[in-house]
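INFO  loader      accepted 1 record
INFO  loader      residues=251
INFO  predictor   begin
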Amino acid sequence: MKELYRRVSEGLAPGDLPFMNYGYAEPRAGNYDWIRPEDRHHKYHFSLARRVLNGIVLHGKAVLEVGSGRGGNCDYLARYSDAASIRGVEPCWENVAAASHALTRHRIRFVCGDAASLPFADNTFDVVLNIESSHCYPDFAAFLAEVRRVLRPGGALAYADIWFLNTLPYDWPARLRALESCDLRIEQEEDISEAVFEALKQEDGLSGTLRQLEGDANRELFSQLRRGNEAIRLHLAAAQCRYRRWILRHP
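INFO  predictor   done
INFO  writer      dumping tokens
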């Protein structure tokens, strides 16, 4: 995945493609009214972040995003919440450099690191956010253990990803058991497959953004990414995978 992200970053300006998640389509157009007009082109991604964080108090909190990519969710947190501090950790150095260059607000910092070995001390954060990243983790249980380690007592993990996709080489029931038996208490669990499916259908969603950024140097790669998005949409339509979110609490 680091190699894929390195290739994606080639030829892009630091502020280009801040989101690579599938997004979340609100059931009614008016539900985007909370998003500032200048941000409406990211409305599906902003809505996904807000939905995943639903029910979590961010006021004055220290927030970590694991798998921060090119910085879009951290930017959302900085501009639409009053979190005290926001950290993003990401294994791809090119993404870290792009996000650090594009997002210079004082509350945000990005570092390079691995989800299974987070470069932070114990009990550092009140909230950990993880969106559409864990399907890249071969050791899912180690990620959960690291989240518990860096969370303060009473802190929360806001987590969402694609699940049960048979093209990924995982024992999905075992991963689900790891989630349900980890030392974090499940507070919320929700299937949001339909809303993610609807976001993937939209011309102004992720595939449209990739199409706009295509150039001679990256056309083949970006076309491949768009085909991948379409494949996920079809898998969701056929109920061959699910998109789920959880809130888990450190006891």
